[in-house]
Specification:
The protein is of the alpha/beta class. Helix content is 32%, strand content 19%. The chain contains 12 helices and 17 strands. Helix 12 links the parallel strand 14 and strand 15.
């Protein structure tokens, strides 16, 4: 019998190891209250978000598991709650493709674990697809859920997954709210906290010579948290946030937010949104410099012919990503696999590597545990990611499985990077990529943040 214990989140995050960016030191943003109505704006230096609430909490869960491993012929039912519909639906295809390819590779390896992947739709907090999908997935026998992409959506069903003693792992949740969440040790993610992206984004905006910043922000845990961490970094670099306007999921008109922010005449505007940005862009670029716009992981996508050529030339954005050249083979393989199943060619690859790695890590943990039970898998997640510090490096399920079956400790380095979970389920290594839009309204890699 083994016991998994998670240490205080503040200690872990304070020692966050970063590839391509500096280590982080946390301090609270200033603010008063979190508004519930869209269109809430602040100008003249006021900030309408309680940034103390965005800081990671501390929680130390303990639970027992009865791992017997390694598995020899284990069927592992894994459900996905990824965005087929809703305001992150553009992320659905690459994430779903990543999970499908991982399951295919694991099953082809024929090494102890067979994945039965049950696809589902997370939707968003407006259409609430998760309200029927999560019970369906758990009812179908899933003891792990991959998803959601949206932090706000995951927070709507995480308690239900935990109550079922299932593991939840997200390839794209970045809200700091999960770091200290009371999750019984069952929640994990392969994307880094927005504490990191906020630092990179804020410093990027300042490095472009901007002294004042306006923000249009999705009013959920992802949007407000990332806004806080961006504000902290930008102001730490000598800048000033002069306007912040919030909107809610489901809103369709953003003229008030645009007017409120433009009224303060900021040097730059950060769009911390999901796909609502598609509605915001035409009105905003009609009266604001396109090369002074900054996007984030929730909305950075290839818009292409959706807008006239040159609409976004010079605009920049950030999201957790390694240099695309290092994942060229993976992307090519993913495209061939995905189109071979009759799907349209992928337009974006955002969080596809993290989705692939999520399924591989679950399978390796189940193999090591000899069990697909949620607590048993969770008790082995940190170890197979290299979190124990004494594993043998491996880069595929098959390679890592041979190490585990042979009695060794596997340290999986994935397509998305080394990962290496800390004991609160966050990856301790990550790279935030900086991207720039060209005349074709598509983005390309510029550098690591």
């Amino acid at each position: 019998m083994s016991v998994l214990s998670r240490s205080r989140a503040a200690k872990i995050i304070g020692g966050f190891a970063v590839v391509g960016v500096s280590a982080l030191v946390l301090a609270g943003c200033t603010g008063t209250s979190t508004p519930s109505d869209s269109g809430n704006a602040a100008g003249g230096g006021d900030f309408p978000i309680d940034c103390n609430a965005a800081e990671p909490a501390s929680y130390t869960p303990e639970y027992s598991s009865s791992s017997t491993g390694p598995a020899k012929d284990l069927t592992y039912n894994i459900g996905t709650a990824l965005p087929v519909t809703g305001n992150l639906a553009f992320l659905g295809p690459p994430e779903i493709a990543g999970t499908e390819l991982a399951a295919s590779d694991i099953n082809a390896a024929n090494k102890g674990v067979n994945i039965n992947l049950i696809q589902g739709d997370s939707g968003d907090t407006d259409n609430k697809a998760y309200e029927t999908e999560i019970p369906r997935l758990l009812g179908a026998g899933a003891t792990a859920i991959v998803g959601a992409a949206s932090s706000g959506t995951s927070l709507q069903f995480i308690d239900q997954v935990i109550a079922a003693n299932a593991v939840q792992i997200s390839p794209a949740n970045t809200s700091a709210a999960f770091t200290g969440y009371n999750d019984k040790g069952l929640y994990w993610r392969t994307a880094p906290s927005d504490v990191l992206q906020g630092e990179v984004l804020g410093n990027l905006i300042a490095s472009e010579g901007n002294e004042t910043l306006g923000m249009i922000v999705l009013n959920d845990s992802y949007g407000t948290g990332l806004a806080c961490f961006t504000k902290k970094a930008f102001e730490g670099a000598g800048g000033s946030v002069v306007a912040t306007s919030l909107y809610n999921t489901g809103d369709t008109n953003f003229s008030a937010q645009i007017e409120d922010v433009l009224a303060q005449k900021p040097d730059a505007i950060a769009l911390i949104t999901f796909d609502e940005v598609s509605t915001i862009i035409p009105d905003l670029t009609a009266s604001f410099a396109k090369d002074k716009l900054f996007f984030v992981d929730g909305n950075l996508k290839n818009f292409g012919s959706q807008f006239p050529n040159g609409t976004l030339t010079g605009a920049k954005g950030t999201y957790p990503s390694v240099d695309p050249d290092s994942t060229a083979t993976f992307r090519s393989t993913l495209d061939s696999f995905w189109t071979g199943k009759g799907n349209a060619k992928l337009e974006d690859y955002t969080y596809a590597p993290e989705s692939y790695d999520s399924v591989v890590l679950l399978a390796l943990a189940a193999l090591k545990a000899g069990s697909a039970a949620g607590p048993d898998v969770a008790a082995n997640m940190q170890a197979v990611s290299g979190g124990s510090g004494n594993g043998t490096k491996c880069t595929s399920y098959a390679e890592c499985a041979d190490i585990i079956v042979g009695g060794g400790e596997a340290d999986y380095d994935g397509v998305s990077g080394p990962i290496t979970f800390n004991d609160v389920g966050d990856p301790t290594q990550a790279t935030i990529g900086v991207f720039e839009y060209g005349d074709d309204n598509n983005y390309s890699w510029l550098r690591a943040g």
